[in-house]
């Protein structure tokens, strides 16, 4: 079924009002890459009305760095910014390199040049979700009257209201450290059924500090997600890692903690058991690389 009409509002207020009036018979569209795959596979029903956000491309695209008393130094990404533009952006590479890597691994170049970070995020299966969770991003939605800020942690639990329009994604810069031996690390790892243009089986992201002198981890944040599952922060695993010295025993404990904390659904291609083991292995391999290169054999 083709859509009966593509609406082209000229203001966010008009777009929100259309969505409110049309209800479940409509959806917002920008790049449309995720919607197209969902419709073609039958995973999501086509709707008779599409609300195009193309009129806001200039307003809601790009990366800007700013600083204010409440948020401190942070970067703001417009929700319609295409994924390809985030791969080599200097501000992204400085503040959230795992987001750059996540975007680089999404699908094929043609998709990255068309799909937006907003669409990837709101699919709730996108590869950017674990990276944004680790970066402790904040999402700004327009609710028809006001702009509302929603912490990424709350979004992962509650999602968004159906009519609200995602306008910006804000990412804080990591605070400066006073420990001269500390180094910031981050990682993004993905496993798919093939190398490219396929939904991920599991994705993991991490960020933290590592003391090269003592071999201690701290301020570590971890998140895991993938197609067909709700992304989560691994808060219990983080609590055990932070303050802990690198060792083989630590890696073993982390492996078991991830397997207990992350319980994804299985699907027709991979079981829950497989996904849990894959996530645990991806995380401890990243921690191993940091520990073994910076401390164990120094």
UniProtKB/TrEMBL annotation:
InterPro entries noted in UniProt: CO_DH_flav_C, CO_DH_flav_C_dom_sf, Diverse_Substr_Oxidored, FAD-bd_PCMH, FAD-bd_PCMH-like_sf, FAD-bd_PCMH_sub2, Mopterin_DH_FAD-bd
Recorded GO MF terms: FAD binding; oxidoreductase activity
Keywords on record: FAD, Flavoprotein, Oxidoreductase
The keyword Oxidoreductase belongs to this UniProt entry's keyword annotation: yes
Domain FAD-binding PCMH-type residues, every copy: 1-176
Keyword Oxidoreductase tagged: yes
SUPFAM superfamilies per record: CO dehydrogenase flavoprotein C-terminal domain-like, FAD-binding/transporter-associated domain-like
Pfam families registered for this protein in UniProt: CO_deh_flav_C (PF03450), FAD_binding_5 (PF00941)
Name of the molecule in the record: Carbon-monoxide dehydrogenase medium subunit
Source organism per UniProt: Salisediminibacterium halotolerans
């Amino acid at each position: 079924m083709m859509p009966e009409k593509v609406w082209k509002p000229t203001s966010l207020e008009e777009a929100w009002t259309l969505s409110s009036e049309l209800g479940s018979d409509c959806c917002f569209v920008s790049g449309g890459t995720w919607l197209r795959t969902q419709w073609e596979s039958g995973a999501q029903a086509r709707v008779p009305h599409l609300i195009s956000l193309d009129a806001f491309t200039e307003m809601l695209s790009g990366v800007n760095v700013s600083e204010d008393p409440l948020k401190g130094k942070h970067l703001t990404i417009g929700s319609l910014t295409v994924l390809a533009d985030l791969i080599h952006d200097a501000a992204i590479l400085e503040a959230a390199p795992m987001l750059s890597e996540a975007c680089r691994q999404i699908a094929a170049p043609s998709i990255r040049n068309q799909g937006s970070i907003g669409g990837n995020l709101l699919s709730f299966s996108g590869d950017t979700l674990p990276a944004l969770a680790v970066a402790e991003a904040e999402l700004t939605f327009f609710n028809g009257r006001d702009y509302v800020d929603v912490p990424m942690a709350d979004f992962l639990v509650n999602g968004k209201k159906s009519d609200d329009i995602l306008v910006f994604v804000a990412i804080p810069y990591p605070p400066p450290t006073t420990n001269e031996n500390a180094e910031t690390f981050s990682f993004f790892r993905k496993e798919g059924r093939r190398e490219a243009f396929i939904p991920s089986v599991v994705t993991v992201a991490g960020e933290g500090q590592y003391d090269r002198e003592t071999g201690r981890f701290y301020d570590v944040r971890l998140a895991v997600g993938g197609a067909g599952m709700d992304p989560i922060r691994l808060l219990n695993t983080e609590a055990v890692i932070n303050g802990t010295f690198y060792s083989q025993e630590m890696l073993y404990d982390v492996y078991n903690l991830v397997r207990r904390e992350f319980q994804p659904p299985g699907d027709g291609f991979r079981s829950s058991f497989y996904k849990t083991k894959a996530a645990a292995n991806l995380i401890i391999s990243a921690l191993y690389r940091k520990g073994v290169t910076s401390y164990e054999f120094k």
